Amino acid sequence: MISLYLAEDQSMLNSALTQILNLEDDLQVLGSAEDGATAWTQIQKLQPDVAILDIEMPQMTGLEVASQIQASALKTKVIILTTFAQSTYFQQAVAAKVAGYLLKDSPSDDLIAVIRQVMTGKTVYAPELVVNMVSAEHNPLTDREMAVLAEADSGLPTKQIAATLFLSEGTVRNYLSAIFSKLGVHNRLEAIQVAKKNKWMR
Amino acid sequence: MISLYLAEDQSMLNSALTQILNLEDDLQVLGSAEDGATAWTQIQKLQPDVAILDIEMPQMTGLEVASQIQASALKTKVIILTTFAQSTYFQQAVAAKVAGYLLKDSPSDDLIAVIRQVMTGKTVYAPELVVNMVSAEHNPLTDREMAVLAEADSGLPTKQIAATLFLSEGTVRNYLSAIFSKLGVHNRLEAIQVAKKNKWMR
DNA sequence: AAATAGCTGTGACATTTGTCATGTTGGTCA
DNA sequence: TGACCAACATGACAAATGTCACAGCTATTT
């Protein structure tokens, strides 16, 4: 019997998955949560064989919970279950040594299959991710440039950006100009869009 | 026996719901799709008692499918199942005379309950929506202003906006200026953010 | 030691953006 | 009919933004 814990903040999916997982003879859901913090507390208490974690949840992300599990050397194996194939998320997940990474864009039977596989010691990643990894454009912007762009994203004018980052206005304009030429655009709005499309910022 | 059709583009949820709905003695899922277009074709063919539709789907949104169903005078009742409580979506759904509007932020048992209720002729809306409706800020921008803002959102400079909307540059700047003063901001980026936060645009 | 890359700055300039006053036209509503 | 508002426009001005060239400083790499 494989014991499970499920953390997923979308109630509809949470309850539906809990039910179908419990239908399997060899699977048992010990509990479920709709936010990361309660999930982490419960996981420590229940010590399930496998924790199925969504990434974007209130209070604590699934990735944070995964890191905690790893840091505490629990025997619990982690499967990340998320919507998007963002390579940054995936990289963090690999860093936290998760046993599986599955997209919500796969049928529920896949989840069941993955659960059984990780219990045999295998590591299972959604194939979409590996493809995405290699083809992912790498961010040409420097840390400082990203910082400036992030401020610009909140709609601040040059003066405010300069103030919050302790730079001169000229420098901020220079950074923005450099960003534009690197990204092949001519204004802040477009630059932000390109950066978001490439998942360099959210 | 109540016959159902399910349109939901997230496979995980689609397959999980299909399974648990089929577990109920009085419910039967005739089929399911992951995009609006196939859903609409299938619904015409199968004529289910109830169609459960996600809104954001490839090819055709759930709201479009709902309108088609209404226009064709099918006996199929529609339940919209979606993530966010956006009042614009909700209003469109009401306009399309849907029988139910449920958030994914409710457990799957609620869905089952709602299915049975709409079959008795009731109309069921998630309570969160009614609350949201009254408290929702209404959009102070005119149609034309919205059109300009939409173009601005794609990062186009004034000249391009003017060209695509067949306006003079001055008019475009005027509209933007009017928008800013209505929204209490001073640049495009902020205006777009306010508009999106208030769900006036996506 | 030299080359490279990132970080910071200045100054000057052209262009774009935002503001304001003002006007015409057409539709709606009391 | 008169008041009002949306749509569209011009012109003029101030402010913000974007571009370019140039330069000094500090790490890191070769």
Automatic annotation (TrEMBL), chains A, B:
PROSITE patterns per record: HTH_LUXR_1, HTH_LUXR_2, RESPONSE_REGULATORY
InterPro entries given in the database record: CheY-like_superfamily, Sig_transdc_resp-reg_C-effctor, Sig_transdc_resp-reg_receiver, Tscrpt_reg_LuxR_C, WalR-like
Domain HTH luxR-type span(s) in chain numbering: 134-199
Key words, A-Z: DNA-binding, Phosphoprotein, Transcription, Transcription regulation
Regions annotated as coiled coil: none
Pfam families: GerE, Response_reg
Domain Response regulatory: 3-119
Keyword DNA-binding among UniProt keywords: yes
Gene Ontology molecular functions: DNA binding
Name of this chain's protein: Luxr family two-component response regulator
Organism expressing this protein natively: Agrilactobacillus composti DSM 18527 = JCM 14202
